[in-house]
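Data deposition worksheet. Section B asks for the primary sequence of the deposited chain exactly as it was used as input, without tags or linkers unless they were present during the calculation. Section C holds the resulting structure in token form. Section D is free text for depositor observations; keep each observation to a single sentence. Incomplete worksheets are returned to the depositor.
Section A, Depositor: J.P.
Section B:
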Amino acid sequence: MSTPDPKDDTLPAPSITTVASREIYRNPWLRLREDDIVRSNGKRGIYGVVEKDDAAIILPIDGDHIWLVEQFRYTIQDRAIELPQGGWEMAVENPEELARGELREETGLHAEQMLYLGCLWIAYGFTRQKQHVFLATGLNQQETDRDEEEHDLVVRRVAISEFEQLMLEGVVRDGCTVAAWGLYLMWKARQ
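Section C:
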């Protein structure tokens, strides 16, 4: 799947023009910039943009079961159940390599097959970050390779019907997980 070429003259002109841009903050995980803008109606404004490198989210499916992770998410001050996902805090040339690395790091799983299902933007109202979606099958367990931030991560293997029920009940609330599952279901329906 590809994204439209911004230089393609058949595309409509952007309705917002960037006049100036400055970086406000940077750390190893993200960059924050503030842009001075002019809208197509002539009104000036500012836009804050969080920039992060690409990430991957993986659907590790094993028959009628799926592997999930549970961890404390600082921003919401709560534990969250979600699909394995993450990034490497650097530009990624090969999204499949990233997906395989995140799967191994968080769950210890190795996938014989990785199928690319597509790419999603994560919260593009304020963040510029892509997330590549992969279906992982032919799974076998190996050692995990967790980051320090994942010290409390719990791996769960649940029936797909239970996973779907957790989403319906609002236990699984991660937008990326729900979106990736929707993309998978659409792909599966066309097979």
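Section D:
The radius of gyration is 19 Å.
The first helix runs from residue 95 to 107.
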